[in-house]
Amino acid sequence: MRSAIAIAGPLAAALLMPAAGSAQDGSSAPAAPRSAAAAPSYPPYVRPVSSFVPPRTPDGQPDISGLYLAIPLPRGIETPLVPLPNRAPNRANSEFSFSLNERPKLPDGAIARPVGVDPPDGRIPLTPEALARRKDIISKQEKIEYLDGRVLCLATGVPRSTIPAPVVGYQIFQKPGAVVIFYEQNHLYRTIPLDGRAPLDPNIRKAMGVSRGHWEGNVLVVEVTNFTTNFSNNWVIGAISATPGVPAESLTTGHGIPHSDQYRVTERYTPIDANTIHYEAKIEDPQVFTQPWTIAYYAFARAPKSYVPVEYACFEGNDKNLLLMTNTDISGVRVNVPEE
User: Fold this and answer.
1) Is the peptide bond before 159 cis (omega within 30 degrees of 0)?
2) Which of 328, 310, 303 lies closest to 318 in space, CA to CA?
3) Which of 110, 123, 119 is CA-nearest to residue 45?
4) Which of 9, 56, 137, 336 has the most Cβ atoms closer than 10 angstroms to its Cβ?
């Protein structure tokens, strides 16, 4: 069943303006950054409105259950503070995302723009202290204690678990009083109660946070709190991998931003049609951000009937990080699989 996607306000023409961003910021260490360029101008974000009415589960929930694939991001996570010289500013975030499966496309009528939609310029509103810490973290990626938690196979948290990655799918289950999301990446999962129960004690913390959800019409709204803070490697967000040698102020991928114990995320899952879910997350942490930061994008496309989630082998063949963590060099035993 198809449905119309309406974008309110003067968004339609302006959202196709160029945006700085890519999944990878360069194949080698860049030249010294030039002075910051003027940030692109984007109109205020307006949520998509759909005429689609999902079927109902036996207990009356809008039925969004099923297997989904990630829709590759059409732009980067953020507008860099200092764009790299001689770098096209409008590259798709999924440009280097290769996989055995054909990746889903944006739905008809959808508009391409960076993931960060508020502030409208696409820049992440970091405090001076958080920006300094980010610069320090990114400059020390050769040290294990500063490595990306996703590289270390730690749970990615929210909203990062919803950022697309190659060959990664999702499964949504619904039962009376709850929604369960299974992430193919790292075999993560979340149970989202819908019964209005209170949050857990603030001293009880989890890597994926503690979720409490409710339905606003056909939209699933989830408040996520109580995140762990014992690992500074658990970054708020990150797309694909940050290329070594790119300084923090030139990243477009969101890497290198740990959160505090005041971190809070409000998610919105909006079914656009029978096969597409739009995702929005408002991210709040007064210790890290100068204002709430909102990301939004078309996130889930219903998977083909032949799609089966597979085992996620995080360390397999990752010789650099195995060397860092175990002092064991496996580079000499790598097996090259011949092409057919």
Assistant:
1) yes
2) 328
3) 119
4) 137
